[in-house]
Design a protein that fits this description.
heterodimer; A: 171 residues; alpha+beta; eight-stranded mixed sheet; 4 helices; B: mainly alpha; extended
């Protein structure tokens, strides 16, 4: 069970975050684009306190840089870690071949976030059957679960790298 | 995590992660209920909104 303080989200996020139920928040940008930000349970690392995190827009068109989108998403992530001792996995969408761009954008959002020193952000780049996948784990520093999650994530990478000789870059 | 991880396990895990994303997007955009989403492998996070400081 995840907890979020909706009053805090709404007072701090530049765009109005609305809880839609089903693990999802939405917001609308100044340009009128609708974004969905959601969490689903993920058992890839064998634990039940890990959530995969998604961002999607229901509008067509190219992403227009907007710092308020970054800030709104980062406030949601900050609130996730403020009230929950859990991990976030972020896997970039590969359906249109733009996963490297998404990965760079997310890393850029993270790096420019003022509170990023509170978190651990590790991204592994896996090449599987000619497709490049980016898997990022986000953790809050100093928690018991973060040490265990980091160990599991790094073990997984070492295991895959040693057994299959896959090229895995970790940032 | 499985001790005897095979190459197929790894490939399958990545395929599944990508599938989960597209399934989630489908569910959210089509307002698929929690019960129906679970049938296709998507378990929405249980979220409680609080007023805690």
């Amino acid at each position: 069970m995840l907890r979020f303080n909706i009053a805090r989200l709404q007072s701090q996020a530049p765009y109005n975050l609305v809880f839609e139920g089903d693990g999802t928040f939405t917001f609308v940008t100044a340009a009128g684009r609708h974004y969905h930000v959601g969490f689903i349970e993920d058992f890839t690392l064998g634990r039940d306190d890990c959530y995969q995190f998604f961002i999607a827009t229901s509008d067509k068109g190219v992403y227009v840089p907007d710092e308020k989108i970054r800030d709104t998403v980062m406030i949601l992530i900050e609130e996730f870690f403020r009230l929950n001792d859990a991990a976030i996995l972020y896997i970039c969408d590969t359906s249109d071949g733009r996963q490297a761009i998404r990965n760079r954008l997310f890393r850029n959002w993270y790096n420019r976030h003022s509170d990023n020193l509170q978190y651990i952000c590790k991204t592994a780049e896996f090449q599987v059957e000619g497709v490049c996948y980016y898997a990022t784990i986000l953790l809050k520093k100093g928690t018991v679960s973060s040490i265990e999650f980091l160990r599991l994530f790094e073990e997984y990478i070492v295991d895959v790298r040693m057994k299959f000789g896959m090229t895995i870059n970790v940032e | 995590m499985k001790d005897n991880l095979t190459k197929e396990d790894v490939k399958s895990a990545f395929r599944k992660m990508v599938e989960m994303r597209s399934k989630w997007e489908y569910c959210i955009k089509n307002k698929i209920s929690r019960a129906e989403a679970e049938k296709i492998g998507i378990k929405y996070a249980d979220i409680t909104l609080t007023c805690d400081a």
